Amino acid sequence: MPRFLVLLLTLACAVPAAAQDETWVDLELVLMVDVSRSMTERELEIQRVGYVEALRSDDVLAAIETGYLGRIAMTYVEWAGTQQVVVPWRVIETRDDLDAFADALSVTYNPALRRTSISEALFFGARLLEENAYVGDRRVIDISGDGPNNQGRFVDAARDAVVAKGIVINGLPLMTREGMGSQWHLEGLDKYYETCVIGGLGAFVLPVSGWEDFAEAVQLKMVREIVVGGAPEPARLLHRAQVGVPNPRDCQIGEKMWEARRGYGMP
Q1: How many structural domains does the chain have?
Q2: In 15-143, which residue ranges form alpha helices assigned H by DSSP?
Q3: Is residue 124 included in any domain, yes or no?
Q4: CATH number at residue 226
Q5: The domain containing residue 76 runs over which residues?
Q6: H helix or E strand, kind and range, residue 262
Q7: Pairing between strand 72-79 and 83-92?
Q8: pLDDT in tens, 187-246
Q9: Per residue in 164-190, pLDDT tens?
Q10: Which pTM was predicted?
Q11: 3-state DSSP call for residue 34?
């Protein structure tokens, strides 16, 4: 047998079985959607419809097709004080794949008391990325939320730990005032996300000021995450991460708001 063939066979045998089973993709993307008690049933429905519309859009498919491999791996997670995988990891590379993912989306509303733990959601997303069967050029957690962290570990510490693993965190702060969310409204939630939640190379915040903008924002941020330096975005939506720029936003403001409300006997 020629010597170079012997070398190739030796190298192939040297690759661990687990590595041979991994699928290479352009991007590993965790979509983390807020379903805490502050969200109304109407808001949950708007979120579901917004993601379905984005997944069915031509722009998202075109973004995937521009990749070197032309495929990504994606999962959809609901989070509050705990987390639940709604759509497990799937490889997405065709229109049929996107449509199947959209069909699988279901957001159910549980009226039980659920707080907001961005920090534990980030750690959960990081575990999903580390334990899946994919190898991506980039790993991204995309997290939405309508309020600051008020449960679990401190959010800035969680952000730092996750980013240290080479994971990028992007934010979709929902700056609306509806239902119980109005009681927990934080002025400048987008600045809180900039300072305390997002991180990593090219991380960004895409705030949603009104629910009428939600579907557009979801589509826009997905294209931007899939395509590095992707399509131009409306200036009214995009906030970029500012490295080394001080910001007065208190990363423990959510915990302080929760304790203050408990002091007044509020749920």
Answers
A1: 1
A2: 17-21, 41-55, 58-65, 95-104, 118-131
A3: yes
A4: 3.40.50.410
A5: 21-263
A6: helix 253-263
A7: antiparallel
A8: 778 898 998 999 999 999 998 888 888 889 999 999 999 997 544 454 444 455 444 433
A9: 999 999 999 888 765 544 455 567 788
A10: 0.81
A11: strand
